[in-house]
Write a structure and sequence with these properties.
Blueprint: H1 9-21, H2 25-30, H3 38-49, H4 68-77, H5 84-94, H6 107-117, H7 129-160, H8 163-173, H9 179-183, H10 188-203, H11 207-218, H12 228-245, H13 250-253, H14 256-289, H15 302-311, H16 333-340, H17 355-378, H18 380-384, H19 392-396, H20 409-425, H21 431-436, H22 441-453, H23 470-475, H24 491-497, H25 504-524
């Protein structure tokens, strides 16, 4: 398989580093071996030492008494089932029983159920279904997060044309500030893998495979719909190039109408494929919650029925009760839930009592804004023309490599749109995991800052030999391909081992990644508010 090819030592290190950062708890029961194996160890330790915060979060009752093996699984991995993870595990076990469960898309819980009933079927006697679902979440998220790091590395090599920055960015992904959500029973790991792999395939010209992966990503998280913009931009770029090539000849311009029709139809088809999972899920929700008595009412266990009565949850196929969104012209349950249950909307989170949450989102907001400003300042004309103008310099010379290269433009726009939407329209504290699982820019720009401003990373061969930053080498006339040469030793470990001598900027970047990595484990696994 190309994604995990053994020919690239950098890719091997990315995968190995990711595996070590996501090591399973069962390995830790034998021996505490690897330096980065304490991800799940810490969550289990903090979950035992710190009492759970009494959060007003979804917490359905358990329908069966746990056995001793269930208690062991819960004690070791229970910290990974907090907050929204309860929704995913509940949906995987009971389906979409409550209306507000429909805010969580089906592909991830379906995958959990498939693994729990398939690969973990031999464990059904000692473990109840919930425990097997939790084990499935740990396994799948570990797998998807490692594959996402590998896909991010491959994508970076194609887009940045600088193997060093791509390598460093992929390693940083394994230390993501959203790391606890990549490990917990959340859909972020699965979405990151599908999104990064789709972007990579699209960059390679594999449009249909990229479209399929984007469509699957849209079945995992709602923001996967935004990825349709990559197809629209790709087709627009191709057509603009053809238009500039044929601009001098009327005879050549006539066939462009056919090309325009072909480009428009293929873009529309691909976008329809990306929107299809969302539309199908909204239709499913409509048939399940809207027509009272249209189908047999599901048998709801008494404890879950009592929870609905106590909390005011809307049950599926409740006789005589029609939710208000069902009567809308376009009945979309997702937007209704965001509005009615979580008060999500433009500027609704701008309250004095939410200042701590804005402070939580401040580092990723600054980093995302800085990335956009850096790119626009380095490529003002390219940004003004939306990257659709082909300049003479690009025909005669290879464009620069690294974060500021022309091909990064669409990714900067994508990240900026997500950042602005998240800051003004969402619960702002989720920005870290929202951007960390959806866009490569957070990792590319962090790697760019480290590579450009950290002398420890300029060494080649020995500690005494140093080179100028990559941008300087390119300005001096070296081929951008030289950016790809270098050793496959782990630059993140080199920075951590040299933490006393690295620059303040490097300390700030690594401090953000590692502090959020650690604080997320401490707070999230004990039901304390986090991002």
């Amino acid at each position: 398989m190309e994604l995990v090819s053994r020919q690239d030592p950098h890719l091997r290190e990315v995968v190995w580093f990711g595996v070590r950062c996501r090591a399973l708890t069962l390995l830790l029961q034998a021996r505490f071996l690897l330096s980065f194996d304490f991800l799940f160890f810490f969550q289990a330790l903090f979950n035992l030492l710190i009492p759970d915060h009494a959060a007003d979060a979804f917490s359905p009752p358990r329908l069966s008494e746990p056995g001793r093996w269930d208690l062991l699984v819960e004690g070791l991995l229970g910290g990974l089932s907090r907050w929204d993870a309860e929704h995913f595990l509940f949906i995987a076990e009971h389906g979409y029983l409550y209306e507000h469960n429909c805010a969580f898309f089906p592909l991830y819980p379906l995958s959990l159920r498939a693994v729990a009933e398939g690969a973990l079927w031999p464990l059904q006697r000692p473990l109840r279904l919930r425990s097997r679902l939790l084990l499935s979440a740990v396994f799948l998220n570990s797998l998807f997060s490692v594959l996402a790091a590998a896909a991010l590395y491959k994508l970076g090599c194609v887009v940045l044309r600088c193997r060093r920055v791509a390598f460093l960015a992929a390693l940083l992904f394994s230390l993501s500030p959203a790391n606890v959500f990549l490990a917990a029973a959340y859909s972020e790991s699965m979405f990151a893998f599908l999104a990064f792999a789709a972007m990579w395939q699209l960059e390679k010209g594999q449009s249909w495979l990229g479209g399929l992966l984007f469509s699957l990503a849209a079945g995992v998280r709602a923001n996967g719909l935004v990825n349709a913009g990559f197809f629209l931009y790709s087709r627009s770029q191709c057509f603009a190039l053809q238009l500039q090539v044929c601009s001098g000849s009327l005879r050549k311009l006539l066939p462009l109408w056919k090309q325009l029709l072909s480009v428009a139809s293929s873009a529309a088809l691909m976008c329809a494929g990306i929107f299809l999972p969302f539309a199908l899920f909204q239709y499913y929700a409509y048939t399940r919650f809207c027509p009272p008595g249209a189908g047999p009412e599901p048998a709801v266990p008494l404890p879950l029925l009592q929870l609905a009565l106590d909390k005011g949850y809307q049950l599926a196929a409740a006789h005589g009760v029609t939710p208000p969104w069902c009567s809308q012209r376009f009945p979309v349950v997702y937007s209704y839930i965001q509005d009615a249950y979580w008060n999500v909307g433009f500027l609704r989170y701008f309250e004095l009592r939410q200042i701590p949450n804005f402070l939580l989102a401040l580092p990723v907001t600054v980093l995302g804004s800085w990335a956009a400003w850096t790119y626009v300042a380095a490529n003002p004309r390219h940004c003004l023309t939306l990257g659709l103008e082909r300049r003479k310099s690009e025909e005669d010379f290879k464009p620069r490599a690294g974060f500021c290269c022309p091909s990064v433009f669409v990714y900067v726009v994508h990240a900026t749109v997500l950042l602005l939407f998240g800051f003004f329209c969402m619960h702002v504290q989720v920005l870290t995991r929202f951007l960390g699982s959806s866009s490569p820019i957070l990792y590319w720009f962090s790697a760019h800052l480290l590579q450009e401003h950290e002398p420890v990373l300029w060494s080649k061969g020995t500690a005494q030999q140093t080179t100028a930053p990559r941008s300087e080498e390119t300005r001096l006339g070296q081929s951008p391909d030289s950016c790809g040469k270098g050793t496959s030793d782990n630059p993140v470990l080199r920075l951590l081992l040299s933490c006393g001598s690295i620059t303040p900027l490097s300390k700030g970047v690594l401090g953000f990644f590692l502090s959020y990595w650690l604080l997320g484990l401490i707070l999230h696994c004990n039901f304390l508010p986090w991002t």
